[in-house]
Structures are given as C-alpha cells and as structure tokens.
Amino acid sequence: MRTSSLVLALFALSACGHTVQPGQAGLLYRAFKDPSFKNEIYNPGRYSLLAWNRLIVYDLTAQNHDEVVHSLTADNLHVPVTVTATFHVRKDDIYKLHTEVGPDYYAKLIGPAFITLVRSEMSRHQHDDLARESPMIEQTVRDMLAALAKTHYVNIDQIAIKHIDYDDTVTQAISRKIATRQQAEQKTYEVQIAERDADIMRAAAQGRADATRIQAQGDAAGILARDAAQAEAQDKIGKTLTPSYLQFKAFDNHEGNFFFVPVDKQNLPIIVNAGGNGAKK
Q1: Listing from the earlier edge strand, what are the strands of the sheet with 78-89?
Q2: Which of 80, 90, 149, 278 has the smallest CB count inside 10 Å?
Q3: How far is 126 from 99, CA to CA, in rounded Å?
Q4: Residues linked to residue 89 through DSSP beta bridges, in sequence order
Q5: How far is Cα 192 from Cα 198, in angstroms, rounded to an integer?
Q6: Which pairing describes strands 24-29 and 37-42: parallel, antiparallel, or unpaired?
Q7: Pairing of strands 37-42, 17-20
Q8: 26: which residues sit within 8 A by CB, 6+ positions away?
Q9: How buried is 253 (Cβ within 10 angstroms: 0-12 exposed, 13-18 middle, 19+ buried)?
Q10: Three-state DSSP class for residue 237
C-alpha cells in the first residue's frame, strides 16, 4: 500500500508542467539547485517540470505603458500630459534582466525614468508651442530613455504624447484670439469683396461712358462729314449753274412758259408803262 502511494506521488510530481506561449520566453527556476536559474532560454512549447520547479515567463512582444505626467512649461504653466511608452525586452538578455532587475523592471527603472524625462523636457517648451513641438519632445524623450533602458536589456520602440490637458485660462484666451483674428480676416475679406464689386461697377460705368463718347464722336464725325460733303456739293453746283446754263436748261424744257423781261445796259429791268408816255426804268 505504501509502495503504491509513493508511485502515485512520484507520477503526480513528474506530470507537472508549464507552457510557454508564442511571443514569450521562459527561465527555469530550480528550487533545490544552486544557482536557482541557469542562463538557458525556454522557447514556446510545453515543458514537464517537477512540482517544486517552475518557469518564469517573459513577454517578448511590444508592450505599452501610459503615464500621466504633471509638469510645468517654460512659462510656468501647469500641464498634465498623458504619454505612452512602447518597449520590449531582448530575448537573449532575459537571464540578465531577471537576475539583475527582475520581472518588475518597468516599475523599478523604466517608469520612473520615463516620468522624469518627460517632465524635464516639457519644462523646456512654451505652453503655446506644445502641440507644434510634440514630435520634437517625443523624439528627445525616446532617445534619452532608450539610452538608459539599453543598459537594462530593454529596447524603447516609441514615445507618444496622447493628450495634453492645456491650461483653461490660456486655452480660452487663445480661443478668443483665434476668434478675433477670424473675425478680422472675415471683415478684411468682405472689404476686399466690396472693393472688387466697386471696381467692377466703376469699370462698367467707364465702359458705358467710353461707349457713349465713342458713339458721340462717331455721330459728330458723321454729321461733319455730311455737312462737308453737302457744302462741297453745293459749291460744285454753284460753280456749274451759270446764267447761260440756266437759260439753256430753261429753253430745253419744251413744256414750259417763258416770260422775258428786257433789261438795260446795267441789267436793270425795263418796265413799260402802257398807259403812259413812254418806258420807265
């Protein structure tokens, strides 16, 4: 009976195991060995372990940690900012990471340094420049944190500013400033439109005036041309209407009646007084 119990106990002990999932790596902890850990990495798979041994598993995939950092800007304004650090441990160094720092490496080293660097970098920038200079802040913090984390076997992949809680007073002042500027720009735009409309109306009026002037000049030129032509024609007619030509035209008309008035040497008409004694001039 005692032998059967011992066999069952040994079987149960030998049946204990642990699974390392994809994206993980493990270190074997040996309770009754010295040293307890060996520099031997367990890749994904199922491992049978004695009951008093276990696997310490590290996540090798990228991990994110958010931090809310309260800092002062260069112009002494309080700004809470939410920042995310993305990082991963180096597989080949998890033995050193575990034996020198431990599984809570972020809480011990990465997190505090992350907060300090963000606060320090934020203090170098003006409140109103934070949004525009966020990429610069992110890159600077990443470079400095990566240099620190590298000595602790962790790679920093990215630093991202997720949210900046701007000072309400300054934000309202900026909003009013923007609104005022937009109103001024709108007024300027309206003035430009009005000036353009006025220019169009002036151009149209000038066009009508020019058209009227050109038409008047044309009419006047036409009248002068007609008058000149008439004068020239009359002058030519006057030169051709000689007394002889008029007499010829008169005699040339066979249906007309003619009356002859005698004239003296001075071309004065001679009037004959039929009841008198003689002719009178």
Answers
A1: 63-72, 78-89, 154-164
A2: 278
A3: 43
A4: 154
A5: 10
A6: antiparallel
A7: unpaired
A8: 18, 20, 41, 42, 47, 55, 56, 57, 58
A9: exposed
A10: helix
Beta strands in 33-138 (DSSP E): 37-42, 45-48, 54-59, 63-72, 78-89
Take residue 280 and report the two structure tokens written for it.
């009178």
Give the ranges where 89-129 is alpha helix by DSSP (H).
94-100, 105, 111-122
- The Cα 151–Cα 145 span in angstroms is 10
pLDDT tens-digit map of 46-61: 999 888 999 999 999 9
CATH code of 63-166, in short, is: 3.30.479.30
pLDDT of residue 7: 44
Residue showing tokens 């030509």: 245
H/E segment holding residue 24: strand 24-29
Q: Predicted confidence band at 74 (pLDDT cuts at 50, 70, 90)?
A: very high
Of 150, 153, 21, which is closest to residue 89 (Cα–Cα)?
153
> What is the spatial distance between Cα 49 and Cα 61, in angstroms, rounded to a whole number?
25
Instruction: Give phi and psi for 129, each to the nearest 5.
Output: -100, 0
Calculate ∠ Cα 101-102-107, nearest 5°: 80
pLDDT (tens digit, 9 = 90+) per residue, 83-137? 999 999 999 999 999 999 999 999 999 999 999 999 999 999 999 899 999 999 9
Q: Residue 255 CB: number of other CB atoms within 10 A? A: 4
pTM higher than 0.70 = no
Q: Which residue do the tokens 């049978």 mark? A: 48
Q: Is 264 helix (H, G, I), strand (E, B) or coil?
A: coil
- Candidates 56, 52, 85; CA nearest to 69 is 85
Using the structure block, give the residue that is written with the tokens 């995310």: 84
What is the distance, to the nearest Å, from the Cα of residue 95 to the centroid of all Cα atoms in its chain?
A: 52
Give the Å distances, CA to CA, from 104 to 40, 98, 265: 20, 9, 154
User: Taking the domains of the chain in order of start, what are their residue ranges?
Assistant: 2-59, 63-166
